[in-house]
Amino acid sequence: MTNTETTDDQIDAALFAALAERGEELQPWAAILPRLTGSHDRKGERLIALWLTGRVWLCKVRGRNYVALGDADDERLAAANRARVPHVL
pTM here? Predict the structure, then answer.
């Protein structure tokens, strides 16, 4: 029996390839989504994981999600947020 499940690395590579085609331009997530392999949930999980590391940049405009490649500043901010101690109320 072979395992045909898409790995995180495959989803990430396909996402980066799609984003690299347009350079620094924002792209609608809905336009990229069909180009990625794997389940809908896994694609969303990978997008969030990459955003949390600063490797992609996300925003929402009029209810529509847009994504672009992150830069060094995005990665620096993500690292600072990970290192921050949460406040307990």
Answer: 0.83
Domain ranges of the chain: 8-83
Helix runs in 1-89, H state only: 8-20, 29-32, 40-53, 72-83
Can you tell me which residue has the tokens 């994981």? Answer: 49
pLDDT at residue number 79? 92
* Cα–Cα distance measured from residue 68 to residue 81, given in angstroms and rounded to the nearest whole number: 20
Class of domain 8-83: mainly alpha
Q: What is the pLDDT of residue 1?
A: 46
In angstroms, the first-to-last Cα distance of the chain is 51
